Every structure is written in structure tokens, then in C-alpha cells.
Amino acid sequence: MMHRCVWALILCAGALSAQNQALLQRKDAAVLYQRCLNLVESTSAAVPGLVRAGAPVVENVRQSLKMLEASPREDGRLTYDLLRNLRAYLALAESVPKPYPFPEEARKQFAELRDSIDRADSHFAALLETKEGQLVTADRDNLARYAEANARIGPPSPNQPRVVFLGDSITDGWRLNEYFPGRDFVNRGIGGQITGQMLGRMLADVVALKPAAVVILAGTNDIGRGAPVKAIQDNLTMIADLADKYKIRVMMASILPVSDYHRGNDPRYERTGQRPPATILEMNRWIQQLCQSRRYVYIDYFSAMVDDAGFLKKEHADDGLHPNSLGYRVMAPIVLTAIDKQFAPAPQQEQQRRRRLGVF
């Protein structure tokens, strides 16, 4: 007999899979909501008396959708209002006498509208469940990811400055030991993270490792989730403040450009809608100004990876967002030059070191 725990894991995995399938990307949800509005407008015209009786509800649907589209993120309350108005329209439509025979096209549209509202309901339920899970999780910032590795890591060598790379999936996917062999470069990237989560990891994943410097590459996921620019800037400032407090050299990287060049391979690779190039430019100007005002090191990946159209060069990524091996090969010398410039030994120290080694 299969152990109960195994069954529990299978059931849990099934529930999570169902939730993930019901939860739509914001762009897909917007398409679904717009389709609902189109169906509301077309079905109301097919039933005498419904145009007039349903006009206030139809207008409420329009306004709810406009407010939801204007929101920087999918707001649960606005989504609820939209669904409530859609359900109200459907209830009203079902109560109004229908012509006989009822047009087949109108019948199909009503059936599609019911199905679309059901899908929107499922998405809304999954959205609420996801938000609740984010609120109650015991490890919102995923401190467990590197807890064991942090416990094993020893103190840095006095002759080899340690540098921690803090970031999201772009950092997480960078095999630092392959690109920088022999260097004490520590990868503390976690895919999908936003700046607030990185701030929550600063003490455990950066400060506790006693690095000489931290390379911060963050913000693209915040932009992708519609976070206000001011909130991203505040989080990055607090990350830098913590590094300053513990005398860790701050090296802040520009946010990488994105592109839609690979959307033909997968519709999910259309990136510029969720990560507008103008917002990335705005953030990079702010990051550069912060570095200048505080004398931090600004690592400019963006200029080396953007094409003439303002997008991530097609050859530097396979999905329009994450660098491929060629992209990382472009980034590597940029950050290494910046690090070596900060920690190059003074001429007198280098001369003494060479004497000790017997090199003249």
C-alpha cells in the first residue's frame, strides 16, 4: 500500500498543478476580460430590451475593466468588481424574455460568455490563493535556499576579496565558477525574486558572508509585476544602506534590456509589454545617479547588450529576457573589470608581494 505521505504529496501536487493552470498571466487575463466585455456588448444587442435594461451594468463592466487595466498590478478588489458586474449582467440577461426563435449565433455567444466568466472566476480564486500563500508562507524571501551553503562557507581569504552576486534568475543562472575560475565570487541569485525579497536576504546571504563587495542586479521582476518605480528605488536604496552599514562595497548593475524577438518560438517570450523599455531606462538612469551621488560602482551591462532599436540584442538571449552563454560572455568582462579596478593592489603593496614571491 502506498504510504499516506506519498498520497498526500501527490494530492498536493495535483492541487498546485490545478491552481497553476487556473492562474493566468496578467496579459492573458486582460485578453479574457476584454473578450467578456465584447460578448456582453454583442449579446445585449441580440435581445430586445436588454440594451436598455442592461446599459448601467454594461457600463459598470466597462469602467471596472478600465480601472483594472490602469492598475499597476492585478488588484483583487478591482477583479472582484469586474466579475460581480459580469455576473449581474448574466443574471439580468437570463431574466429578460428572448425572441423566438433565438438566433443561433447569440446562443453561442451567451454560452461562450458563461464559459469565459467561469474561467475568470477560476483565475480569481487562484489569484487569491496565491496572494494568501505569499502572505502566510514562513519563508517569503526563500532564506532556506542558501542556508546550508552559507553555513558551510568559510571566512574570506585576506588576499582574495570575496564578492557576493545578489540578484534574481539572471544571476541565479550565471555559473560564476566557470566564468571567473579561481575567484571568491559567491552566487546568491534566486529566480523570480523582487527587490523586497533580496532586501530580506541581505543579512543572511550577503552580510554574514563578510564580502568585500556586493554586485546587485535587481529590478526586472519588480517591473514585470507592475511595481511602482518609487518602491523599487526605495528597496534598492535600503539594500545599499545595509551594505554601507557593514562596510561592504556597493556595485550596482543596470537592469538588462528585454526584447520580443523570440516570441515566434513561444508567445510567453513577448517581454516588452510587462517590462516596458521606457521603465527600464528610467530605472537605469536612477541607478546611475544613485551610484554617482554615493560613489558606488555602476556596472553598465545595458549599453553593451542593447541594440539600435532599444531592445536586448537577439543573439544575447533565447527568450528575450535571460542571457544565454553569449550574453553572459558579454557581461563577464564588464563586471570583472569593475571588480578588479576596485581591489587592485596599490603599487607599493604589489611590489612587496612580488618580492616575497621572488618575482622581480
Instruction: Bin the helical content.
Output: 55-70%
Strand content: 5-15%
Summed up, the helix count is: 15
Uncertain runs with pLDDT below 50, 5 residues or more? Answer: 1-20
- Overall 3D shape: elongated
Tell me how many strands there are.
5
- The topology string of helices and strands comes to HHHHHHEHHEHEHHEHEHHH
Level-2 CATH architecture of the largest domain: 3-Layer(aba) Sandwich
End-to-end span in angstroms?
Answer: 74 Å
**Biggest β-sheet: count, sense, barrel?**
5 strands, parallel
Q: Could you report the average pLDDT, rounded to the nearest whole number?
A: 87
Concise synopsis of the structure shown:
The chain has 15 helices and five strands. The chain is α/β, with parallel strands linked by helices.
Q: What is the topology?
A:
Layout: H1 4-22, H2 26-46, H3 50-70, H4 76-95, H5 104-136, H6 147-152, E1 163-167, H7 169-172, H8 176-179, E2 185-189, H9 195-206, E3 213-217, H10 220-224, H11 229-245, E4 249-253, H12 277-294, E5 297-299, H13 301-305, H14 325-343, H15 347-357
Parallel strand pairs: 1-2, 1-3, 3-4, 4-5
Helix pairs in contact: 2-3, 2-4, 2-5, 3-4, 4-5, 9-11
Characterization of the model:
- With 360 residues, the chain is of the alpha/beta class.
- The protein folds into 2 domains: 112 residues, de novo design (two linked rop proteins); 196 residues, Rossmann fold (3-Layer(aba) Sandwich), CATH 3.40.50.
- Helix content is 60%, strand content 6%.
- It contains 15 helices and 5 strands.
- A 5-stranded parallel beta sheet has the order 2-1-3-4-5, with helices on both faces.
- Helix 12 links the parallel strand 4 and strand 5.
- Helix 4 packs antiparallel against helix 5.
